[in-house]
Amino acid sequence: MANVSNRRMNNRSRQHRQAADYRRNSYVDGNTVRKLNTVPERRREETTRKAPKRRSQKNPVRNPVSLAGIDGASFMFMFLALSVVILVSLSYVQIQNNVRDMKKEIVSLQSDIEEQKEKNDIKYNEIVASVDLSEIYRRATKKLNMVMADGNKVYKYRNKKSNMVKQHADIPEADD
User: Fold this and answer.
1) Which helix (H) or strand (E) covers residue 4, if one does?
2) What is the pTM of this model?
3) Is residue 119 a contact partner of residue 125, using CB atoms and an 8 Å limit?
4) Which phi and psi (to 5°) does residue 29 adopt?
5) Is residue 111 classed exposed, middle or buried when 0-12, 13-18 and 19+ CB atoms within 10 A define those classes?
6) In terms of C-beta density within 10 A (0-12 exposed, 13-18 middle, 19 or more buried), how is residue 71 classed?
7) What is the chain's alpha carbon radius of gyration, rounded to the nearest angstrom?
8) Are 106 and 114 in contact (CB under 8 A)?
9) How many CB atoms lie within 10 A of CB 171?
């Protein structure tokens, strides 16, 4: 049995030595193994290159309507768009000016209305102050022989001259 165990030991030690020799002689980098004596392939340049065509340089013709890099249609579109923007902005400024003038006019008219109201109030107060109710009562009762009505009594007036009433103008309609 000793022979069998020695053989196993010799086999194991031999396997370990072989593995160590393999590790010493081979280089492993990551998960890839480098190949020895490999030369990368050279890139081959295309020998059939097309030669650039030479064009004769022409003097550029300056078109007074177009700018550098803009054709005539684009220039006209840009000109029309700019014209529309200018017209709209000018009309906006004019409308703002009209609104400002109207506001000033409204303020002046409102101040005129306030002045007229004050004048009307002053005149009304003068008229009310000038009326003497006791004088009116005295003239009505003594000169015109009027009688003060009691409650809801209505006194009828008898016209001695005629039963007919003359109408000198149309009766105005009541505004309701």
Assistant:
1) helix 2-25
2) 0.36
3) no
4) -120, 105
5) exposed
6) exposed
7) 61
8) no
9) 6
Which residue type does 28 have? V
CB neighbourhood size of 81 (10 A): 10
User: pLDDT by residue (tens digit) across 91-128?
Assistant: 999 999 999 999 999 999 999 999 999 999 999 999 98
CA-to-CA dists, residue 40 to 32, 35, 43, angstroms: 17, 11, 9
Give the integer Cα–Cα distance in Å for 67 and 74.
10
Distance CA 10, CA 4 (A): 10
Separation between Cα atoms, residue 77 and residue 83, nearest integer Å: 10
Q: Which residues pair with 32 in a beta bridge?
A: 29
Which tens digit of pLDDT belongs to each residue from 127-147? Answer: 988 888 888 888 888 888 887
